[in-house]
Design brief:
Length: 707
């Protein structure tokens, strides 16, 4: 006879330091798990505090309030009769750890600290926590008084141990530990652990989910076992969107998968599994040869059977069948991830909508379509009677919690909360103005349109009055310095006007509150520095700031059909232009001409610089093989040097970069992700000499095949 059990894992939309809200969502997830008959519930990493507390993890209050919340969980009748894996920070002997707390029936069974910390990219866990060491080391932890009074316990084990239930053995693996070469699940599995839990704070990046799912499947493919993966889902107060996708696998096969993007605060998945399937999978003799030599883990007893005699004796009650994993295309990821992030930011900031300068170009178009996607998701959730979404919608729109308003049309909802504006000058074209207007009509935004020439002229007049000089554009005979200054003043005035209208448009419409200003500079332009400091790239948040131009174009092509917005064709066919210089019969400003490189080249430079950790010399050394059939070595050298010059001379702009949704591995975000100096020796004299020398050697000593 089999040993059937129902196991549960979840994604929670926790918020940093929102102890009351986090507790509510934890208890709700436990209640749902019990309603589904589960005997084990796993939650996300640091779920009590929220993952993104940053330096608040250095404060004693954070640890005090975590224990207070855990006390509420221990006291709750809802938490009886189910084994719980809860995440919070712990200070042990004045050392801070990122921990899992295993509890059962109002008692703490084990504190399991994280052993391998995430400390690159967006993560700085070593700044706050210390990794537990060595493996399989266990000590006694003296519980704080508030917990002793609840549980009657004085000490509990802390360390790398496992839980022995009446019928199986459960081991904990924490987020980054899965990504290490010698993951704990390997030795735990060889020592007889049959169920692995993984609690994670893993953020969304385009095309990243495949790697995560492959690792989770591989964790039990060779060694057998049941793997329960839990992840945070949502924006918990920073640039990251944690993309959920809770998973349950059995012997390398997925049997349950949660949503990657959702407006729900609690997403729970369960699976019925047969523990005998794990034991059968582990029957090969070569595994047993390794298992007998493994160092045993300390087993902490838990007086609970995870399997159920009732369901095991019920005919027709069978294990959950394997399913095919679900992935979104990058275009779908862009339509969903930033949209969910914008919704969380809007509702948690207590503001009343968004304001976007809509230029008629593809970048601001993409930001607008993402907001429209957010409105579509809100309507979908409200239609499904998501109480939290309906409540938030009523507050944001000013209807009040006692209203019966329910969003049922994305365009109608967008008109209430989304404001767009075309700020034209004499350098603007009729085509961009019309594109902006048509897009606003298509998505329902409250749109305004004006010329700001008189504002620009007043600045020119002031400058002339003070200096008795009148700068001119290059096409009118001015110098490069004059030309750039005249472009920048237009761009910066748009930023000032954007904040003016964002503050006052609700008042104009007889509403309360204010609007968040959205930016729309993409990752490639940020990397190259092709933006004016304190122009419309300066905003409150930016949904596309870490998305490449190439991906944005694919996203717009996808949404044209998916959202039925025909005007998007016009954006796809338009030449990207800043429209800051006068248009003449033989000159129209072009972004790629201005930058001296294509967007495709920028993506390549960005990935080599960040992902492959290339300086000028190693970047040239790689590209000489990639591009050598089409370009001469000296031409490749020139492109590399041009990129590094403009990247470094403009790096200072990244210090004021608007907080952007993190989506791309080569984002130049200076505040969290890409830590570099912002005052460079832009000559790169030593490095460029090496590049030039190698390029000459290639041209002198090798036959060059130029197509």
């Amino acid at each position: 006879m089999g040993h059937l059990m129902i196991l549960a894992t979840c994604s929670l939309n926790q918020w940093a330091l929102d102890f009351e809200g986090n507790l509510k969502r934890i208890l709700e997830s436990i209640n749902i798990a019990k309603q589904k008959g589960a005997t084990l519930r796993v939650g996300p990493e640091l779920e009590i505090t929220g993952y993104g507390c940053f330096d608040h993890f250095l404060e004693g209050d954070t640890y005090l309030h975590s224990w207070e919340v855990l006390g509420k969980i221990l006291q709750s009748e809802e938490t009886r009769g189910i084994l719980l894996d809860i995440g919070m920070p712990i200070a042990h002997k004045n050392v801070k750890y990122n921990c899992r707390i295993i509890i059962l029936d109002g008692k703490v069974l084990l504190i399991r600290p994280k052993m391998f910390l995430a400390n690159d990219g967006n993560y700085r866990e070593l700044r706050y926590f210390t990794p537990w060491s060595p493996s399989q080391h266990v000590e006694e932890y003296y519980l704080p008084r508030i917990i002793r009074d609840i549980t009657g316990q004085t000490t509990v084990p802390i360390g790398d141990a496992v839980i022995a239930t009446i019928d199986t053995c459960v081991g904990v693996e924490l987020c980054e530990e899965l990504f290490t070469p010698n993951s704990p699940h390997i030795s735990m599995g060889l020592d007889g652990v049959e169920i692995f839990t993984n609690s994670s704070g893993s953020h969304h990046e385009l095309r990243k989910l495949h790697r995560r799912i492959d690792l989770i499947k591989e964790a039990t493919l060779k060694n057998g076992g049941i793997y329960l993966y839990s992840n945070q889902q949502g924006c918990d107060g920073d640039r990251l969107y944690y993309d959920g996708c809770a998973l349950i696998t059995v012997n390398g096969q997925i049997v349950a998968q949660g949503s990657q993007f959702s407006l729900k605060d609690v997403v729970m998945i369960t699976a019925t599994v047969d523990i005998e399937d794990v034991r059968s999978h582990r029957g090969q003799s070569s595994r047993e040869m390794q298992a007998v030599n493994i160092r045993p883990y300390l087993r902490i007893e838990a007086q609970i059977a995870l399997s159920s005699l009732e369901i095991s004796m019920t005919p027709g009650f069978r294990p959950t069948k394997p399913i095919k994993e679900k992935y979104h295309t990058p275009e779908q990821e862009i339509s969903l991830g930033p949209a969910c992030w914008l919704w969380d930011y809007l509702r948690r900031s207590k503001t009343n909508g968004y304001f976007l300068p809509l230029s008629g170009g593809i970048d601001s178009c993409a930001s607008a379509v993402i907001v429209y996607s957010m409105c579509r998701l809100v309507v979908q959730a409200a239609t499904n009677n998501d109480v939290q979404v309906i409540e938030d919608s009523r507050r944001i729109t000013g209807e009040g919690k006692d209203s019966d308003y329910i969003p049922n049309d994305p365009k109608e909802f967008a008109n209430r909360i989304f404001h767009t504006c075309y700020m034209g000058t004499q350098n603007s074209s009729r085509e961009t103005r019309e594109r902006a207007k048509h897009l606003a009509n298509s998505i329902g935004s409250y749109h305004i349109d004006f010329n700001m020439d008189n504002v620009v002229t007043s600045i020119h007049t002031l400058f002339n009055f003070v200096t008795n000089k009148t700068p001119r554009f290059r096409v009118n005979g001015g110098s490069d310095v004059e030309n750039l200054a005249l472009q920048n003043i237009q761009a910066r005035l748009r930023m000032v006007l954007a904040y003016l209208f964002a503050q006052l448009l609700p008042w104009v419409r007889n509403k309360n509150g204010s609007l968040l200003v959205l930016g729309s500079s993409n990752v490639d332009e940020c990397l190259r520095g092709y933006l004016t400091k304190y122009d419309c790239s300066s905003a409150d948040i930016n949904p596309i700031g870490a998305i490449s131009k190439l991906d944005l174009r694919k996203f717009i092509a996808y949404t044209k059909n998916e959202f039925n917005i025909s005007v998007l064709d016009e954006f796809l066919n338009a030449t990207p232009t800043a429209e800051l210089e006068p248009i003449t019969n033989n000159y129209v400003q072009s972004d790629e001409v201005d930058m001296g490189m294509t967007y495709e080249e920028l993506s390549i430079f960005g990935r080599l610089r960040k992902n492959e950790r290339c300086g000028p010399f190693s970047m040239f050394s790689k590209l000489i093989h990639e591009w050598g059939a089409e370009l001469r070595p000296t031409e490749i050298a020139s492109k590399v040097k041009r990129f590094f010059f403009y990247y470094s001379v403009n790096r200072h702009k990244m210090t004021t970069l608007t907080p952007s949704y993190h989506a791309e591995t080569y984002s130049p975000d200076d505040n969290r992700f890409d830590l570099r100096p912002f005052l460079y020796n832009t000559a790169w004299s030593w490095q460029f000499k090496k590049v030039d020398s190698l390029a000459k050697d290639f041209e002198k000593n090798k036959k060059i095949n130029v197509q």
